[in-house]
Amino acid sequence: MRIDSATRDQLQAWEKELSAQYQRICQHELNLDITRGKPSADQLSLSDKLDGLLNGEYRADDGTDTRNYGGLDGLVCSRELGADILQVPASEVIAGGNSSLTLMYHAVLTGYLFGFAGNKPWREMQAPKFLCPVPGYDRHFAICEQLGIGLVNVPMTATGPDMDEVERLVQADQEIVGMWCVPKFSNPTGVTYDEETVERVARLGKIANPGFRVFWDNAYAIHDLGQQVSLPNIRTASLENDTVDCVLQFASTSKVTHAGSGVAFVSASPANLASLKQQMQAMTIGPDKVNQLRHSRLFPEFSMLKEHMKKHAEILQPKFALVLKHLDEAFGESDLGQWEKPKGGYFVSFDTRPGCAQAVVKLAADAGVKLTPAGATFPYGKDPEDRNIRIAPSFPPLEELDTAMSVFVLCVKLASVRKALAA
């Protein structure tokens, strides 16, 4: 099916046929959900050894009694785990609670209220702004929106953000104080930044205002689906460019062990860590060290963590393959959509024809299949072209995912044909 070359009679015939198929599906009263990238129950079960793992032995290797207060930085063994994931020195890591999003919120709040490393707090600027590669992660945008920090769209490319545009904006506006990045298997496109992009991101500290910070959310650092994909090391590039204060890195075990009870990490320069800890001292006496110790005992060596992630990949690979099979078969020879074929991460990004995404999501919802809201992958929930839809294959069983994707492709076809007829 190709819309651009179809006659009106063909479009009307297609609409009639597709509408009939759609009405038949609606009669099944489905209740399927592919909205968010949650691990499946099978994935969560891979880490059930956490339960009872300590067997009453609560002392860490350095003698710390993990049941007690203290240790703002987190356990040494937990910081070493975060250092392995992010490929940085453990001395530059804080190990926290279960959520990297909490650490990111705290970091943005630190920059906004107090400033980093002696730099001007962002709240003292007339209109502080963050650059947002789009499509991107809605929870990143929500942090800035809640604090009244402006959001500026930057297009994503096949190798990362459009760095020509990033550099132009940073040089033109000294009130741009940060940029969100998901550098490996980006949410939702699946793109991994190439070496040139990482190098140019590391150089931003030379042209941006002194308080500018890159928020490097490496959420999928070890979430490869097959062959390992290499991400150039942003810390190394920052050291080479003398911009180490410009970058804060984040990761967690939320999609490694139990999603609701993992360990989160932030890595940054000593000056940035000092800024973060100055505020943390007023809000906590320390993280959950018992949970940190459990994770360190589950993965005493990084090689064991990598083997664990291969088991995740074995569960996820068939689901991603199924989604891509549906898209290839439905749209491989059509002009109804474009999509990425990610090598890891948790999402498949699909672009409809302009002006169709919201209609697709509504049609799917009415047929019993919940999708991430159209526009969610853009700041303020506004996709300028109304095209992008994020598909999250991880949570449902294969049979349910197969049904959901059958409904999805039908809704894309029906919305596309109706849009063409209305033009």
Automatic annotation (TrEMBL):
Per the record, the domain of life is Bacteria
Recite the UniProt keywords alphabetically. Answer: Aminotransferase, Transferase
Report whether Isomerase shows up as a keyword of the record. Answer: no
Any one Gene Ontology molecular-function term assigned to this protein's record? transaminase activity
Q: Does the keyword Transferase apply?
A: yes
Which Pfam families does the UniProt record give? Asp_aminotransf (PF12897)
CDD domains, A to Z:
AAT_like (cd00609)
User: What is the protein name stated in its UniProt record?
Assistant: Aminotransferase MSMEG_6286/MSMEI_6121
